[in-house]
Design goal:
Elements (H helix, E strand, L loop, with lengths): L4 E7 L2 E10 L4 H10 L7 E12 L1 H16 L3 E5 L3 H9 L7 E3 L8
Helix pairs in contact: 1-2
Length: 111
C-alpha cells in the first residue's frame, strides 16, 4: 500500500493539488478534506494533478466528484491532469470523462 500524499501549490489559474499514492477507501477522506479547505473564487480553476496516483477505487472517484462539487459551488472549474491510463479508462467507461475536463498529459494549460 502506498500512502496518499497531497501537496498544494497556487498557480495563476487557481490552486493545484498534486495527488500521489493510493486514493482508496482508507485515504479518500483526506482528498475531500483538502479540497474543502480551498478557498476558491468564481472563475478560478482547481487542478487535480494525478501524475503520482498509483491506484483509485470507487471511493476515490467519489472524492474527485466531491472536489468538483466544492469547486462548482464556488463558481470555479475543475481539471484533472496527468490522469493515469487505467483511471482514464474507468472515467471513460462510466461517462465521467464527460463531467470532468481531463488532460491526460502532465499539466493543464496555464496551470
Amino acid at each position: 500500500m502506498t500512502p496518499l500524499n497531497i501537496t498544494h501549490r497556487d498557480a495563476a489559474t487557481g490552486p493545484v493539488l498534486h495527488v500521489a499514492g493510493e486514493l482508496d477507501y482508507d485515504q479518500a477522506a483526506a482528498l475531500r478534506r483538502q479540497a474543502q479547505l480551498l478557498d476558491l473564487a468564481p472563475g478560478q480553476r482547481l487542478t487535480l494533478d494525478l501524475a503520482g496516483l498509483r491506484f483509485c477505487d470507487s471511493t476515490g472517484i467519489t472524492a474527485l466528484l466531491a472536489a468538483r462539487q466544492h469547486a462548482q459551488a464556488a463558481g470555479a472549474d475543475v481539471v484533472l491532469t496527468a490522469v493515469p491510463p487505467a483511471l482514464l479508462r474507468v472515467l471513460s467507461i462510466v461517462g465521467l470523462d464527460q463531467i470532468f475536463t481531463v488532460h491526460p498529459g502532465d499539466e493543464a494549460p496555464d496551470a
